[in-house]
């Protein structure tokens, strides 16, 4: 999640914290010693080689209920943390991996393979997982670009000037084996902060969205679903004014935090452009809903909000939902919210008759630098597992 203004003017949200720098040399040395030791000692070692030119994942198989996940960090740390959150929840299986492409420069919006690869590996490990990717529609997306320049950029986008960037992204996702990625394109477009906002020229914005979707769908092998996800409430413009058309939207999402507009959860449901408006708008078009971002905020540790939001999700049965799990919004990674964390944990723990389903390890360790030559230069990773009981 990024800094922006939701609800009344000046109600700014916090910038998502940057991931800590990775100490690649130390990690490589330590893992090298561990792998070598396991091989020399004759210990139990199971390996899976994942190749990007191998079979693609089957389409997500039907699963009962809503797919659950959390935003836990943008890069590979976000992938690694999934196992920790599952353990904290008592074994609940998280089916959604969610991250954001950086919106600073086009080269990053195109999706660097090194950034996307850990998420693609995670997605491919289980057929019914969802990879949800927020994709900015403009570079310099958080640099307070003025409205007159936004209008100019929207006109350029509507004219096709940026199509090639999105074709590049689509091609990379397909080549990485995640052609069924859920694309949260130009999220919170009804707000005031992002350069990809809609209010300066809704007509051009809608035309630009259509160009992006057309460009990405033109790539052979793609199976993308596009999620139109405004922020709850009117904000700078009613989000229905930005809706680009049923033929280029697959999911109607909404980002909704515990903050104004609305003093109570019922207000959040019933306000203009609120939660009820979202589900009714989607139902009229035969589309599923989603909640790519939600969580605590202005009212701090609010277990009543947490309970009501989880009840709303259970009632509406969205395709997926992902809480923003960092302060000031989250529960697992934010010690400031113990009461809300207890509600979240209780609601999502496996219930009687719903034991956690075992699955493959959550993360493959990339060992291309050492072993790539032995496998013809292909991408690969190794999964360590203990065989037998102790």
Characterise the protein shown here:
This protein is an alpha/beta fold and 390 residues long. It has one domain: TIM Barrel. It contains twelve helices and eleven strands. The strands form two sheets. It has an eight-stranded parallel beta barrel, surrounded by four helices. Helix 5 crosses helix 7 and helix 6 packs parallel to helix 7. The protein is globular, with a radius of gyration of 21 Å. The N and C termini lie far apart (42 Å). The N terminus and C terminus are likely disordered. Keywords: Glycosidase, Hydrolase. Pfam families: Glyco_hydro_26. It comes from Streptomyces carminius.
Give the CATH topology. TIM Barrel
Give the distance, in angstroms, between the N- and C-terminal Cα atoms.
42 Å
Q: What is the CATH level 1 assignment?
A: Alpha Beta
- Following the backbone from N to C, one meets helices and strands in this order, namely HEHEHHEHHEHEEEHHEHEHEHE
If helices are DSSP runs of H or I spanning 4 or more residues, what is the number of helices? 12
Low-confidence residue ranges? 1-63, 353-370, 372-380, 383-390
Strand tally is 11
CATH architecture tag: Alpha-Beta Barrel
What structural category arises from helix and sheet content? Answer: alpha/beta
* Strand coverage percent: 5-15%
User: What topology, given as strand order, has the largest sheet?
Assistant: 1-2-3-4-5-6-8-9
Any idea how many domains?
A: 1
Whole-number radius of gyration?
21 Å
The amount of helix comes to 25-40%
